[in-house]
């Protein structure tokens, strides 16, 4: 057994800064691949390429497969074509396509031309599907079992392709036209008599359409608890398979993207410490500009009611409280409904039920918060101010929850990302609306 050599981050950085390749090579020899991956993701530019060049062939393939796709893409751009050709050839077709999506067209075409005929054909199958579809993320390397096989023949077929296939634990059973008839588990095959026909062990298969969204298919695979989900075309012909580890990776990417957009930024792919500052700025600046423009509505509302504020300065004290409460209420509703959409608990046709529920929730929250606001501000500033605050909180919470719950459904209806319509935009909208409600109630009750 090869002894696993460990090194500290400082030792690696010192060797790189001193350009001591002999010491660096000794550190990497026999080192844990996971440790090398972590350090590569933290490094930038030529340092990353230098470390990768010093790895043995087996180490290089193992490490490269463990890297996320943006880091793989950055590494390929730094290395010479001949240095990446062998690694690219050994990748699985779905991983190969994900890497190609990260590369400039010229480099991608050059790598594709360097593939062997069989690997190029498998990669082309995955490339043929639209970005974002499960066909783009599936593996076309599937062990299929003909329906007229015996158990012994099926086991032999699985054993002969065990090293090249994505998985052999779930085996699709097909007819002569490659139409999917069901699946059979490896455990069931091992437990059966080798002379038994496979058709006696076949069970109905849950499938994914190759053109459906990757996140939808991945969530179905995860919820069903399957090790793999066959992927079929519109004629139920088998085109690939989605394994549970790939499904979980897709869901993790989707969750990271949703969390970033709910916070008003584009997701940063790759390791944070190795991401160029320019890319971090680009991921945030557009959203900040959009939100700044939206926030100008709040300023305009304040200007409209400037005379009202000048007559009763105390009203300005409660502005942050009211718009903050409204924004938080809307964000809570949006986050809840966005999650329900992602899990399939809510669909577009449920919009009326969602609106009704969120309106009721908002009203109940408004009664609770408004009641407290009425009592506290009434004691401190008089019943008039207390009534204004209480009614404003009741109205703002109801409106905010209703709008927050509706926006993700509107986004879904127009085929946009629900997370984009969530927290930042809702906060801006509720700020302006809340001020209009606040000053309108104040003028009505206080007569100013």
UniProtKB/TrEMBL annotation:
It holds the Pfam family CBS. One of its GO terms (cellular component) is plasma membrane. The chain crosses the membrane at residues 285-305, 359-381, 388-410, 425-446. Residues 138-201, 207-257 form the CBS domain. It is a multi-pass membrane protein. Keywords: CBS domain, Cell membrane, Magnesium, Membrane, Metal-binding, Transmembrane, Transmembrane helix, Transport. The keyword Glycosyltransferase does not apply. It is found in: Cell membrane; Membrane. It comes from the Bacteria. Acts as a magnesium transporter. This is Magnesium transporter MgtE. It comes from Tessaracoccus antarcticus.
């Amino acid at each position: 057994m090869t002894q696993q050599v460990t090194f500290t981050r400082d030792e690696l950085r010192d060797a790189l800064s001193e350009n001591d390749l002999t010491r660096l090579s000794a550190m990497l020899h026999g080192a844990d691949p996971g440790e090398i991956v972590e350090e590569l993701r933290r490094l930038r530019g030529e340092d990353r390429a230098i470390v990768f060049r010093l790895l043995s062939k087996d180490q290089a393939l193992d490490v490269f497969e463990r890297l996320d796709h943006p880091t793989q893409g950055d590494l390929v751009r730094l290395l010479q074509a001949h240095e990446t050709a062998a690694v690219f050839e050994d990748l699985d077709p779905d991983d190969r396509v994900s890497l190609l999506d990260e590369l400039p067209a010229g480099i991608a075409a050059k790598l594709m031309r360097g593939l062997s005929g069989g690997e190029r054909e498998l990669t082309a199958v995955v490339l043929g599907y639209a970005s974002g579809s499960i066909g783009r993320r599936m593996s076309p390397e599937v062990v299929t079992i003909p329906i007229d096989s015996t158990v012994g023949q099926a086991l032999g077929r699985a054993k002969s392709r065990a090293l090249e296939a994505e998985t052999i634990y779930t085996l699709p059973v097909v007819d002569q036209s490659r139409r999917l008839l069901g699946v059979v588990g490896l455990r069931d095959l091992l437990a059966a008599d080798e002379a038994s026909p496979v058709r006696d062990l076949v069970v109905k298969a849950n499938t994914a359409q190759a053109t459906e969204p990757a996140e939808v298919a991945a969530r179905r695979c995860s919820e069903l608890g399957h090790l793999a989900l066959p992927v079929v075309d519109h004629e139920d012909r088998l085109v690939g398979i989605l394994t549970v580890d790939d499904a979980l990776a897709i869901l993790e990417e989707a969750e990271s993207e949703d969390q970033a957009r709910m916070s008003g930024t584009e997701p940063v792919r790759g390791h944070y410490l190795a991401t160029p500052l320019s890319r971090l700025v680009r991921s945030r600046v557009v959203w900040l500009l959009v939100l700044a423009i939206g926030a100008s509505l709040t300023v305009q509302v304040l200007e409209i009611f400037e005379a009202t504020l000048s007559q009763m300065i105390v009203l300005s004290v409660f502005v942050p409280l009211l718009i903050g409460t409204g924004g938080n209420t809307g964000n809570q509703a949006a986050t809840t409904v966005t999650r329900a959409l992602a899990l399939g608990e809510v669909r577009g046709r449920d919009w009326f039920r969602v609106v009704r529920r969120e309106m009721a929730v908002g009203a109940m929250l408004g009664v609770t918060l408004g009641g407290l606001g009425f009592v506290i501000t009434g004691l401190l500033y008089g019943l008039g101010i207390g009534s204004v605050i209480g009614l404003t909180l009741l109205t703002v919470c109801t409106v905010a929850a209703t709008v927050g719950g509706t926006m993700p459904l509107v986004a879904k209806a127009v085929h946009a990302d629900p997370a984009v319509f969530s927290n930042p935009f809702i906060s801006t909208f509720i700020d302006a609306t809340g001020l209009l409600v606040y000053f309108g109630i104040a003028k009505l009750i206080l007569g100013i």
